[in-house]
Structure formats: C-alpha cells, structure tokens
Automatic annotation (TrEMBL):
Pfam families: N_methyl (PF07963). This is General secretion pathway protein H. Gene3D superfamilies: minor pseudopilin epsh domain (3.55.40.10). InterPro entries: N_methyl_site, Pilin-like. PROSITE patterns: PROKAR_NTER_METHYL (PS00409). It comes from Pseudomonas mucidolens. It comes from the Bacteria.
C-alpha cells in the first residue's frame, strides 16, 4: 500500500473556495457602512442634474437647499405678488442619518438652477462617519464629484 503525503487537488480547491467565500463576505461587510451614503448621494446627484435640466428647458428658477434633516428642491414662485421659494414635490428618498453637508440650514437654496444655467459656481462637502464627498457645480452647469477619505 502506497502512502500519500500532502493534499489532493480536490482538497486544495475546497479549501481555496472556503477561504475565498469568507474573504468576500468580510470585504462586503466592511464596505456595507458606506454603501447607503454613496447610494443616497448618487440619487441626489441624479435628481440635481434632473432639476438643472428642468430649469433650462422650462424657463423656471429651481434650487437645492438643506433643511437640517435632508436636502430638498425648491422652485421660485410668485403668489399674489409675494415671491418666495416653494418646496418641489420629489421622490421621497430616505436620507441616511449622519450624512450632512457643510451648508447651513436655510430657507433660500444654496444652489440655484436658472434657464441660463447655474446662477453661480457652488461647492459642498458631504460628511459622514467613515468619509466624505466633495461636489462642485461649475459655471458650465456640470457637477464634479470627488470622494475623499
């Protein structure tokens, strides 16, 4: 009878499969803390681009402000001779707790989208416990996003 020293190919493949499975689960659990933040910011960026396009094509003045709990979009309206910012109806997106901008709470928007493009270049840094993301709206009406550690 011949004695085998070492592992067979099948045993090695099973061990590698188990190690790969555990490392994939570990990486996924480490990244899970930032996933809701990135998802919320991606949805907000898409909505901001939509609002900018809507302002250009409809001839209205729209804006984005921070209300203390979440960002919201507003429209410049004049009712009975009283011009003011009115809350825009938008998709209700749950905003993650702990995700905040470096903007103050304000009734007036920090970003204004006009028919001619962006009213002025604006930047905001979104902060959360594990990271931050910097947004810059440029004069040519583009949004540049940079994730920072």
């Amino acid at each position: 009878m011949q004695r085998c020293h070492g592992f067979s190919l099948l045993e090695m493949l099973v061990v590698l499969l188990i190690v790969g499975l555990f490392s994939a689960l570990g990486v996924a659990s480490l990244d899970a803390g930032q996933a809701p933040m990135h998802q919320a910011l991606a949805q907000l960026a898409n909505e901001a681009r939509t609002q900018a396009a809507l302002a250009r094509h409809s001839g209205q003045v729209l804006g984005m402000r921070w209300n203390g709990r979440q960002p919201e979009f507003v429209r410049w309206q004049s009712e009975r001779g009283q011009p003011s910012w009115r809350l825009e109806s938008s998709r209700a997106v749950s905003w993650p707790a702990g995700l905040q901008p470096d903007w103050p709470v304000s009734a007036a928007p920090q970003v204004m989208f006009t028919p001619a493009g962006l009213a002025r270049p604006v930047s905001v840094t979104w902060h959360w416990a594990e990271g931050r993301q910097r947004w810059q709206w440029r004069a040519d009406n583009t949004l540049r996003i940079a994730t920072q550690p």
